[in-house]
Write a structure and sequence with these properties.
Strand 1 and strand 2 form a beta hairpin. The protein is built from eleven helices and three strands. Strands 1-2-3 form a three-stranded mixed sheet. With about 375 residues, it is mainly alpha-helical. The protein has helices at about 5-10, 20-85, 85-110, 125-155, 165-195, 200-210, 210-240, 245-275, 280-290, 325-345, 360-385, and strands at about 295-310, 310-320, 350-355.
Amino acid sequence: MSADQARNAAGLPYGAQEPGNAESGKRELDEQESGKQQGTGKQQGTGKQGSGKQDGETRKTVWVALGANLGIAVAKAVGGAIAGSPALLSEAAHSVADSLNEVFLLASLRRSERPADPLHPFGYGKERFFWSLLAAVGIFVTGGCFSFLQGIEAFRSEESESLSGYVIGLVVLVVALLAEGTSLLRALSQVRAQAKAHHRGTLHEIKVNDDPTLRTVLAEDSTACLGVLLAILGMALHMATGDGAYEAWASLLIGALLVYVAYILGKSARAQLIGEAAAPEMQQEIRDFLDGRPEVDAVTAAMTMRLGPDSVMLAARVDLVAGLDSEEVEEALVRTKQELCERWPELDQLFLDVTDASVADRVRARRARKDLDDVVEERRQTDAV
């Protein structure tokens, strides 16, 4: 049995030393770890700095959205009460829901920055996913359900609005549209900056962006602008025709829009909370990198999971080429880990397991790789449309 086979049979984890070679192995690994820090520190540091800057921009975006929504919520509620407009009151509920959600998102940014501890060894990055799920629930309950109730009540009501009520309501909605538009432009500006940094188009960046906080703010602001336009249309038609059904339908449409957005955000947060893999393109690149290593004979598994917007865990099982002794195995693994971290700084949790691949393992690996390639090709075709 060769040294690497003995190591596999003993089940020694990555970085462990064989009893007979502990002292020399320790010196070797210390030197390699020192080299790794020198070789990757700059690039990983850049990634962390970039992450901190991105979080700072996201925090500013959330504060802008919170300030806009708080002011708008008060204005809509007062204007809706004076005008007796169900569409305007629905929009007030929408702004209240958005304001509460911004508080959730600010909490998620602060709590997700806590360092790892013994109870949470992978850190608190998934806090963002949890609080974005609560934001989705808030949009559904506070915004969507209230808008439906307002719409149904408007169909039953036979009260007519005064001309002054119409004017007040429309003025409030126009001001709200300007404020919501300003907040939306701020969110889009951040998305465009990230798209430029990633060498992607803005629409593609919105689709693949992994930050649930920014995605939620962007969805809220877009929905708010569209909701205000629906409310303006409903009030204008009511004023022109005297038929309150137009405002009732506007409220129902706003409710349906909010429920749909809540469903999309909740679905995304659920996938991230239960353990969503990294983007298929990134998985494919990692597999290509591992397959291209001269020491690697086969990659039987390469599993990823997002631990946060800028944190990914990789657990890979590799079968090394025959004839390597224990020191060469250690050198190969340390070097592979170092280069993985250099190419993908977000891989801050990395586990490499040396295994003796069976025929069945190799067949499963080829099948998994084909499925991954099919997914990547399908996504490329979809993006090209």
